[in-house]
Amino acid sequence: MTPRRKTHQINVGGVLIGGDAPVAIQSMTSTYTYDIDKTVAQIRNLAEAGCDLVRVAVPKKEDTAALPSILEQSPVPIIADVHFHFERALEAIDAGIHKIRLNPGNIKDRKQVDRVIAACRDKGIPIRVGVNEGSVVERQDKNLRAAQKQTLSENPRDRLVQLMTHTLEDYLRIFDENDFHDVCLSLKSIDATIVIDAYRAASKQFDLPLHLGLTHAGPPETGRIRSVASLGTLLAEGIGDTVRISYASDPVHEVEDAKELLCCFGLRNRVEPELIACPTCGRIEIDLIKLVADVRLKLATIKTPVKVAVMGCVVNGPGEAEGADVAIFAGKGRGIIYVQGEQTRTVTEDQMLEALYEECIAFAARVEKGEVQLSNHSVSIVPPAPLPRSDGSIPLTVMK
Ligand code: SF4
């Protein structure tokens, strides 16, 4: 992991973005913002799932009219997503919004952009300046346009990345001229490789915080891969101050996946159990896939980041489960449970789920009382040695 790049820090309603602040998770509601009850309900669900900031669309005046009530009820800071109508930004600022997302390219009159910037400065509200692949524009200035043509790559992909960063430069010039620097940046594309290159380029060029995201990533099944490939690469390179994973789905899934991604990189501490499980193979002797699914549901009730391993045998399982606080190694009809490396119980197959859950609950309670500490990857599990069967074959697990 490359150490995180330090950027200028902005404050979004008390959530810090950039500098040495943790990478913030954000998402966007899919409700009509004017429907206050549904919007607040979704914001609460997102916050409950671990979302730090929520963006809402405000295409109409009735949407900004709903903001005071939404802001009053929201447990997290709210961002107004503004396109085309600068009035919506001014109304959102008046309502007490915590951040504005603005694309100066679709607000044609420069004076209107200046008014939004002035209003944000007065209230100490930061602005995200976003460039999407579809919104790159030629430079307005003829001389700059001619100079730009000579420097653009002939490779269409590279040219697109260059145009995106050039467009961002043009937008940022407006903010510089207004001496307004509480800005964060985004450069989104549907193409993971363009996202990676665009953010890499922006991270070299600007010291402003970066909002990572793909646009139109698709349903979770495919969007997840694109998002992890692009955002994961950037995060591993120390790039990114806030992330939004976007799916054509319930936005709660975006937050769950963003949280898991940040936890994988050690950029966020787990607050819930972590479940590791073997993929199963020809040695498996129980329906481990079902057991894992059942364990996952059960663990959702525990609010301590216990590391739990569900393994199909003792052949490779112990090594792979090393570091788990509570682990089960399942064999034909039986399972052996370990707690921080100590074998505690041997149970029958029909007892596995409840027994493992009981051990997890008991362990979590001891953690909460300060009697034990969560594992730090140093727990070593030494399994019982497999004994050969009478036909010479190696059994999958050995039960005492
Ligand atoms: S733990 Fe055992 S059953 Fe599971 S994948 Fe590894 S060897 Fe196969």
Describe this protein's structure:
The structure is a single chain. This protein has helices at residues 36-49, 61-73, 86-95, 110-123, 142-151, 156-177, 192-205, 220-236, 251-264, 288-299, 317-320, 352-369; strands spanning 10-12, 15-17, 24-28, 53-57, 78-82, 99-102, 127-132, 183-188, 211-213, 242-244, 274-277, 307-311, 326-331, 334-339, 342-348. It is of the alpha/beta class. It has two domains: 10-264, Dihydropteroate synthase-like (TIM Barrel), CATH 3.20.20.20; 274-369, Sulfite Reductase Hemoprotein, domain 1 (2-Layer Sandwich), CATH 3.30.413. An eight-stranded parallel sheet has the order 8-7-6-5-4-3-10-9. α2 links the parallel β4 and β5. Mean pLDDT is 89; it is low at 396-400. It binds iron/sulfur cluster (SF4). The site of iron/sulfur cluster (SF4) has 12 residues, from loops.
Task: Note the topology.
Blueprint: E1 10-12, E2 15-17, E3 24-28, H1 36-49, E4 53-57, H2 61-73, E5 78-82, H3 86-95, E6 99-102, H4 110-123, E7 127-132, H5 142-151, H6 156-177, E8 183-188, H7 192-205, E9 211-213, H8 220-236, E10 242-244, H9 251-264, E11 274-277, H10 288-299, E12 307-311, H11 317-320, E13 326-331, E14 334-339, E15 342-348, H12 352-369
Parallel strand pairs: 3-4, 3-10, 4-5, 5-6, 6-7, 7-8, 9-10, 11-12, 12-13
Antiparallel strand pairs: 1-2, 13-14, 14-15
Please outline what is shown here:
This protein is α/β, with parallel strands linked by helices. The chain has twelve helices and 15 strands.
Overall shape: elongated
The gyration radius over C-alpha positions equals: 26 Å
Number of domains: 2
Bound molecules: iron/sulfur cluster
How would you write the strand order of the largest sheet? 8-7-6-5-4-3-10-9
CATH arch. level architecture of the largest domain = Alpha-Beta Barrel
Helix fraction, binned, reads: 40-55%
> How many DSSP-defined strands?
15
Q: What's the CATH topology label of the largest domain?
A: TIM Barrel
Overall mean confidence score, pLDDT: 89
CATH superfamily of the largest domain: Dihydropteroate synthase-like
Order of helices and strands: EEEHEHEHEHEHHEHEHEHEHEHEEEH
Q: Biggest sheet, in brief?
A: 8 strands, parallel
Sheet/helix structural class:
alpha/beta
Binned strand content: 15-25%
Task: State the name of the first-level CATH class of the largest domain.
Answer: Alpha Beta
